[in-house]
Amino acid sequence: MFETDRLQLRAIREADFEKVLALWNDPRVQKMMSRDFVVPSGGDEQFRAGLLSALLFVIIETKDSHEFVGVTFLRLFDLQKKNRDAMLGLAFLPEFWGKGYATEVVRFIVDYAFEQLALHRVSLAVYGNNTAAIRVYNKVGFVQEVVQRKANWIDGKWQDVIWMAVLDEDWEASRKDDLKIVS
Ligand SMILES: CC(C)(COP(=O)(O)OP(=O)(O)OC[C@H]1O[C@@H](n2cnc3c(N)ncnc32)[C@H](O)[C@@H]1OP(=O)(O)O)[C@@H](O)C(=O)NCCC(=O)NCCS
Description:
Layout lengths: L1 E2 L3 E5 L5 H8 L2 H7 L11 H8 L3 E7 L5 E8 L2 H4 L3 E8 L8 H15 L5 E7 L3 H10 L2 E12 L2 E11 H15 L1
Parallel strand pairs: 5-6
Antiparallel strand pairs: 1-2, 2-3, 3-4, 4-5, 6-8, 7-8
Helix pairs in contact: 5-6
The structure holds coenzyme A (COA).
Coenzyme A (COA) binds next to α2, β5, α5, β6 and α6.
């Protein structure tokens, strides 16, 4: 189990699948996570297998009251293995948005990805209207690399799909800068 200031990140248990499914079935969440049709899912075997096949998939809870906040994950697809390039995902229940939790979690996961998992890149795709997520990723050091223009249809409009990444060397440099500020 991992801990940040206010949260704990732990392995998924049998009883969590329903909560993760409910999170996914919230249209405010699913439309920001998927390029597919946004429709309710019954959570079949493929859904479960998808969660379990991630390099890292954790349930996020509040430290004090153990409330289910959401999930975060790193996926290392076969074609990305040689280059140690994992895809980051995260989603929180809307009642927990705007408390700084995503910033706390993404900082932890990026540190963990480079320090413990020996990754070279952490990549992600975010939709152009996802202002909160883009703000979080910028704060943590992700850099925009590619924009697929008007590539995803959300709420009656085309949105850009923005690819962002942070490299191990960017992360090293930012840590050295932090040390300089402290010393
Ligand atoms: C994206 C998501 C994880 C963000 O979580 P969160 O805990 O609310 O994020 P934080 O509170 O750490 O930070 C959000 C930042 O965006 C800013 N923000 C939020 N909405 C904003 C808006 N409409 N315009 C400008 N800034 C906005 C906040 O002020 C905050 O920045 P600050 O710390 O500098 O003030 C959450 O909204 C979510 O689960 N969304 C649905 C799933 C999703 O989008 N996943 C990401 C897919 S790429």
